[in-house]
Write a structure and sequence with these properties.
430 residues; alpha/beta; D-Maltodextrin-Binding Protein, domain 2; 10-stranded mixed β-sheet; two-stranded antiparallel ribbon; 17 helices; 15% strand; globular; signal; SBP; Bact_solute-bd_prot1; Sugar ABC transporter substrate-binding protein
């Protein structure tokens, strides 16, 4: 596998600032396969984050393409990691499926491309619509392999009504985070619901904290780590995991985070039993779907220090899809991805998700709930999701496992980070 590139979200600041500008979509390209019309069934598999938006996009696509029937399924992230790889090897994978941008997970672009699992999207209309700032996590050797649906971010997603009921606001300093936890606990509420039972959730708080503690303070950390001049255990990653444990000890989470799934964690926020949760911005859809119609929610950065000027957020391409290189209905798959990349569909998905579109759209108006993300992009205070830059899926998997053990009291911060350093040093052996 080629060495990964570095993707700094600050490079797309101008693109996001122009989020209301229009883009032009070309006609779908001919697939060149034995069924150029795409008539028949198209199989699509997505992670659950897009349950609130993808079904309506599929309905609109089928209306525009009546000869194509889409079989849409949603698969948990952990199942996606294992089943898709098995299916790709066996030749039974779906035509279109979630592919994580960049590197760092078993179904990430840079893991799948060297094995010939992904179709080249360079000839499609979507190729020229994707912001240049996302090239390094959507291209390999100059060829496009994934289409991101959203510009995602990680931070606190808060129930506005629950905050108002307690007379509090989203914290802007680390001390205020702990104060919020105490206030919520005293009122019989949870400050931050935490679905630690669902493995991928165990990256999110550390990603949010290290954006400020590590990358906001050392712009060259990623390069130095790749060069062997920096490590997890000898960096502010140690402070980040210590703060995660501090949140647990302070009662910031529900009593049994290890017994709580992602779905149950979002339900707590939706009902107002939890003031918020630290998650990816696409989680807005899961929360709002389960919430009363009049409930509102908002995104705010999770501060890691007592100086608000030092706060950064993780942000980058998310909700991405790729095409199986051996898709049974390649023409329909290409038509579907080009349809997702149009102005109208990008706007509809962003509205349903309550987040920002990966491709600018004249039909989209940024909701108040996520406007804070744009302030960090404009200030160039963003860092990619860490795992998009790591050399192997094993690093993210180790982080998830180690955080679960930390929460369970089965390991130490030093041991956890040492384990991460070990798999990082192994490089691309996935």
């Amino acid at each position: 596998m080629k060495q990964h590139k570095y993707f700094f979200v600050g490079a797309i600041g101008a693109i996001i600032a122009a989020v209301t500008l229009a883009g032009c979509a070309g006609a779908p390209q001919s697939s060149g396969d034995s069924n150029p019309s795409g008539a028949g069934t198209l199989t699509v598999v997505s992670i659950p984050n897009y349950k609130g938006s993808l079904p309506s996009a599929v309905t609109a696509f089928e209306k525009e393409n009546p000869a194509i029937k889409v079989n849409l399924q949603f698969v948990d992230v952990n199942s996606m990691y294992t089943t898709i790889r098995t299916q790709l090897t066996a030749g039974t994978a779906p035509d279109v499926f979630t592919v994580f941008p960049g590197n760092g997970t078993p179904t990430a672009m840079e893991v799948l491309v060297p094995n010939g699992y992904l179709a080249d999207l360079s000839g499609l209309a979507l190729d020229k619509r994707i912001p240049q700032g996302m090239d390094s996590v959507t291209k390999v050797d100059g060829k496009r392999y994934v289409l991101p649906l959203s510009l995602g971010a990680i931070g606190g997603i808060y129930n506005d009504g629950a905050l108002t009921a307690l007379g509090v606001t989203a914290p802007k300093t680390w001390s205020e985070v702990l104060q919020l936890c105490g206030t919520a606990k005293a009122a019989g509420k949870v400050a931050y619901s935490y679905g630690a039972q669902t493995a991928w959730n165990n990256q999110l708080i550390s990603f949010a904290l290290t954006a400020s503690l590590v990358h906001g303070k050392d712009k060259n950390f990623d390069k130095n780590q790749t060069a062997g001049k920096a490590s997890f255990v000898n960096s502010a990653w140690k402070i980040a995991l210590e703060k995660l444990l501090q949140m647990n000890t302070a009662g910031c989470f529900q009593s049994t985070p290890l017994g709580t799934s992602y779905e149950n964690a979002t339900a707590l926020v939706a009902k107002g039993d939890a003031l918020g949760m630290v998650s990816v911005s696409s989680t807005f859809a899961a929360i709002t779907t389960a919430a009363p119609k009049d409930a509102t929610f908002s995104f705010h950065a999770l501060p890691a220090t007592d100086n608000p000027e030092e706060t950064w957020i993780p942000a980058g391409a998310s909700g991405a899809f790729g095409i199986n290189a051996k898709a049974k209905n390649l023409a329909a798959a290409k038509k579907f991805l080009d349809f997702l990349a149009t102005d109208a569909t990008m706007a509809d998905i962003a509205k349903a998700q309550g987040t920002l579109p990966a491709i600018t759209s004249s039909l989209y108006e940024t909701p108040v709930s996520v406007k804070e993300i744009l302030t960090f992009v404009a200030a160039n205070k963003t860092h990619p999701y860490n795992d998009q830059l790591w050399p192997s899926p094993k690093v993210a998997q180790t982080l998830m496992e180690q955080v679960q053990q930390l929460i369970g009291g089965q390991t130490s911060v030093t041991a956890a980070l040492t384990a991460m350093d070990t798999v990082y040093a192994e490089g691309s052996g996935s």
